[in-house]
Design a protein that fits this description.
heterodimer; A: 478 residues; alpha+beta; v583 fold; Enterococcus faecalis V583 fold; four-stranded antiparallel beta sheet; 16 helices; globular; B: 516 residues; alpha/beta; Rossmann fold; 19% strand
């Protein structure tokens, strides 16, 4: 009968440590005997939905080994991802199938008729920015005439916050994942107030975009040429230790970035006037770093795509109408459900009735495991996103460990005993636990052109994950 | 002396973490000096001055972590670097926050408490397999309290366990003691050299508690689940447990508790036991001693005998018992009989422990007294779940019919207490037989629930001019949270005759019934 004896021998000769799944009387008994233990706050998987529980159980046993190996590989790639900011480029020069009539937007694909107010407002602005129309009416006529091609940024290694407009002339941060060689892009943050990402499209918005394109972008490119690529992970690790969670709050990262980039810009830009404008712009925007973080997260997550048997999420994004996710083993397929409304605080004069539902590619930060996932590191953001205590913020992070493959070995959370940020969302765990990813987000006014009205937190809809899980099981032939 | 350094590209740590790690590295054997720092210019000059880096050090920048070690040997230097990796690895993985840890899934539990090596599963049966599979994938041994798990699932789980070398105790395994910790329904038993493997939950409680009372001690008490020795499961877990106990240096005597195994299983088990060089005592409740003919395994007729034989063997004495002296029992029986009216002919036994009920059925059968029961051996005497008692009746109230949707009768006494009143009101009933099972997992004060019910039962009989004999036994140790002596006293004060163990209680009942 010879059985392997090592594990039993180990059990008999080491400290018993018990995980209790079910009746808590048994857990209390273990504690009463001073035996270390942990209680699993178990609930029926998939919220008690027998069909989904059955799908989950099909992924146990033999397929589990493959899935685990694949997910470990995904985690390894995410952990080893090493994004560096390598310059500023123009969409027209780097994106495939790009022309003046192509507009990249946030989230999964959608048609003009499906677009929410701010998205339409941004599209009109983007068309005018490219000089294809002078007025809103002309712009809408172009769209309705089928002249404009819409596509998700995610399809071309790009991300953009909120409406996420990317057009022909726009400058993009270029971030290279040094470990895997892939490249990702994100637009430059426009600052606060009336901005295209919230659907604003008046002349002041377009003027600022032109300044980004013609003044800021070349200066930043020169700075990178002078300095060499900037390691993004180092900024991110430091900023988390300084109280950013890096979606809603980027003040530490933006400050650290300004500290490093301004000395180089001073050497790179000769025109004093322009240099002053650039310094004002970068220093005056607490969220400047967000777009660099987004490109970095995109560069890391893209390296996790297309791993067979892998149930890790590679993208989460919203177009203001639908929320979509992508899963490694399922390639470019979007799994979508209607977006939810964020909950949080509003700027004076605005309320929940003014807010547009969830929007933007910025949930790429949570896909990588920062933002809502590292809320525990960011006491300062807690109240703003509707949590009422620092403990509540840490609980959001604790919950995210339940649905992730592992932790980030470099991005750690000081006030949670330097635990690594939760990383690698596993669709199986989301469905099993009923815990959906938490996302920190800004809120746009539902009317185009008004801008940001508040900020808060929102959940990814469960249906995205249940659909993906079923598709995964089907693709596995299970 | 050798100097080693390593550069970790783009790896950032705060300086406090690195200073702590550095000072710990300096404390390691054979390490002369060590420092880990971020590669700033200032740190570069500090480490250069300390001789930890030199001209041949790989180039590094401010975003890199620089590890430098001076040590007496290359081995010591490598050990220091490995220590650093462990330290920062641990720092970044340790998630154990203060106070009680909790998690929503087993894998999260394993992440929070990486040392977890055992899982107790008591979720509804249809979810139990999935949880057990997850636990075993994570390298944890399993006690599955859950019942209503299919045979097919049980076989699959035990095959998986055998492959991985993990214990998979259950389903429907109520009792286990690992390294002295009581799991499920189990008693606080002195540690010692007797190892047990049982396919009978309350039987395991009874025998371990008796061993403790008799001055013996337990190394490990392993449950297999009640169906393990059936043909379909093939004794997979029993076989593994026996091998584990045989290999365990703390175990010097092995006790097996079970109903008689299926024939093929028995054959394999005896073959396996031939290779065991420790004394083995087996109580195959309801089996024929002939089963063990030609084997070196020692036969125990009931749970009490199993405990007594084991304690003898554990002391290195000859495991043989003198014939029973039942003078005292007979005296008590006669005393009680004198109080009963002629129409009080019958016994009603109400049990929370299945094995105890079963043991009583057997002991009465051996005395030629048939009993009706919901777990009858002879189907002729099967009493369907809800049927009223008839003649001599013994009920296992932990059976599915009674527990359906309700807590186990070791936790919730309402059904048993109600039934006691019903039985007491029956003019044909003379003797009420009860168990009182203590230990972790069970009710905080079982006798505290039973005592008032005993008083009420006696009152009901008295109101109709009858005496009611109540015989009880307490499965408990003095170390149990409920304390055996406290439980005994409460039952005695309520007017029950409390015997030393269930077998004794059954014998007393048998002596009375024989004379009625």
């Amino acid at each position: 009968m010879a059985y392997k004896q090592e594990l039993i021998h180990q059990l008999f000769t080491s400290q018993l440590q018990v995980a209790n799944v079910g009746v808590d009387v048994f857990y209390q008994a273990v504690l009463d005997q001073s035996t270390p233990g942990i209680h699993v706050d178990w609930r029926p998987p998939a919220g008690g939905d027998p069909r989904l529980a059955e799908v989950l159980s099909r992924l146990q046993g033999e397929p589990l080994r493959r899935i685990q190996a694949a997910n470990e590989e995904a985690h390894r790639r995410m952990d080893q991802g090493d994004p560096v900011w390598a310059g500023v480029v123009y969409a027209k020069d780097v994106l495939p199938d790009m022309d003046r009539y192509t507009i990249g937007h946030a989230g999964p694909p959608l048609s003009w008729d499906e677009m929410c107010g701010p998205m339409k407002g941004a599209v009109i602005g983007a068309i005018r920015y490219e000089g294809l129309a002078r007025t809103e009416e002309e712009a809408v006529a172009l769209v309705k005439g089928g002249k404009i091609k819409f596509r998700p940024n995610h399809s071309v290694a790009c991300v953009g916050p909120m409406t996420g407009m990317i057009t022909w002339s726009m400058p993009l941060f270029k971030v290279v994942n040094k470990t895997f060689g892939n490249v990702a892009y994100c637009t430059i943050n426009e600052g606060l107030g009336k901005v295209m990402r919230f659907g604003a499209n008046d002349d002041s918005v377009l003027r600022r975009l032109k300044w980004l394109e013609q003044v800021l972008a070349p200066a930043l490119q020169k700075a990178v040429e002078l300095h060499g690529p900037f390691s993004m992970k180092v900024f991110m690790a430091k900023a988390l230790a300084m109280g950013d969670e890096m979606h809603q709050r980027n003040i530490a990262a933006s400050s650290l970035f300004a500290r490093d980039v301004l000395p180089v810009l001073i050497r790179a830009v000769n025109d004093q006037e322009q240099l002053g404008e650039i310094a004002d712009f970068i220093s005056g925007n607490d969220q400047f770093f967000l777009n660099l973080a987004m490109a970095s997260c995109k560069a890391v997550c893209d390296a996790v795509k297309d791993i067979p048997d892998c149930t890790i999420v590679t993208a989460m994004s919203r177009n203001g109408t639908n929320f979509g996710i992508k899963v490694s083993a399922l390639g470019e397929q979007w799994f979508q459900a209607p977006v939810l409304m964020p909950k949080g605080l509003f700027f004076p004069g605005y309320g929940p009735e003014d807010a547009n539902p969830d929007m933007g590619d910025s949930a790429i930060t949570e896909t990588y495991g920062i933002g809502g996932f590292t809320m525990g590191s960011s006491p300062a953001v807690v109240r703003f996103v509707g949590a009422d205590s620092v403990e509540a913020a840490m609980n959001y992070t604790r919950d995210m460990y339940e649905i992730t493959q592992g932790v980030n070995s470099q991005l750690t959370i000081p006030n949670m005993d330097f635990k690594g940020a939760p990383m690698g969302i596993d669709i199986r765990k989301v469905v099993e636990t009923g815990i959906t990813p938490v996302i920190n987000t800004g809120m746009a006014h539902k009317k185009p052109g008004v801008g940001q009205v508040g900020a808060g937190i929102v959940r990814a809809p469960m249906e995205c994950f249940t659909q993906a899980l079923e598709a995964f099981a089907q693709a596995q032939g299970l | 002396m050798i100097t080693t350094n390593q550069i970790r590209k783009n790896l950032y740590f705060d300086s406090v973490t690195l200073m702590v790690a550095s000072s710990m590295m300096r404390g390691l054997d054979g390490v002369i000096n060590a420092a880990v720092m971020m590669g700033t210019d200032h740190n570069r000059s500090l480490m250069t001055q300390a001789g930890l880096i030199g001209p041949d050090t790989e180039p590094f920048g401010v975003n890199d972590t620089v590890v430098g070690v001076q040590a007496e040997s290359d081995e010591a230097a490598q050990a220091a670097i490995a220590f650093f990796d462990d330290y920062i690895g641990g720092k970044k993985k340790s998630g154990k926050s203060s106070g009680e840890a909790s998690a929503r899934t087993l894998s999260a539990a394993k992440t929070v408490c990486p040392g977890v090596n055992f899982t107790v599963i008591s979720v509804p049966g249809r979810y139990a397999r999935a949880e057990a599979e997850k636990a075993m994938e994570l390298g944890m041994h399993v006690l599955m309290f859950s019942d209503n798990v299919s045979l097919e699932d049980e076989v699959a789980l035990k095959e998986m366990a055998a492959k991985k070398g993990l214990l998979m105790m259950g389903p429907d395994c109520g009792t286990t003691i690992i390294n002295g910790t009581a799991l499920g329904f189990a008693n606080v038993v002195r540690r010692g050299n007797i190892g047990l493997a049982a396919a009978a939950g309350t039987g395991l409680q009874e025998v371990t508690a008796l061993i403790d009372q008799l001055g013996g001690g337990v190394s490990q008490a392993l449950g297999t689940g009640g169906r393990d020795l059936k043909e379909e499961v093939g004794g997979k877990m029993m076989s593994m447990c026996l091998e584990a106990l045989n290999e365990d240096p703390e175990t010097e005597v092995i006790v097996i508790l079970s109903k008689p195994p299926a024939q093929s299983v028995m054959k394999r088990m005896l073959e396996q036991l031939e290779r065991v060089n420790k004394p083995v005592i087996a109580a195959f409740l309801g089996g024929d001693p002939a089963l063990l003919e030609g084997s070196r395994v020692i036969w125990a007729g009931d749970l009490e005998q199993a405990a007594r034989l084991a304690v003898l063997a554990a002391r290195g004495e000859e495991p043989a018992l003198p014939p029973d002296d039942d003078t005292m029992l007979k005296a008590t029986a006669e005393e009680e009989l004198a109080k009963l009216a002629p129409e009080q002919k019958y016994l009603r036994g109400l049990y929370s422990g299945g094995t105890l009920c079963y043991e009583t059925i057997l002991l009465l059968r051996d005395e030629g007294i048939p009993t009706w029961s919901n777990i009858a051996l002879d189907k002729k005497y099967l009493l369907e779940g809800g049927a009223p008692s008839r003649e001599n009746t013994l009920l296992d109230m932990g059976d599915d019919f009674f527990t359906n949707g309700l807590p186990h009768p070791m936790i919730d006494f309402r059904q048993r207490v109600d039934r006691m009143e019903q039985e007491a009101a029956d003019p044909a009933v003379g003797v009420l037989l009860l168990d009182c099972v203590c230990g972790y997992g069970t009710h905080a004060d079982p006798a505290g629930e039973l005592a008032p019910a005993i008083r009420r039962a006696k009152e009901i009989a008295a109101q109709n001019g009858r005496h009611l004999t109540v015989i009880a036994s307490v499965t408990a140790t003095e170390g149990d949270p409920q304390a055996r002596s406290v439980q005994l006293r409460q039952l005695e004060e309520a007017g029950a005759i409390v015997m030393g163990c269930n077998a004794q209680a059954a014998r007393l009942a048998a002596l009375m019934l024989e004379q009625i």
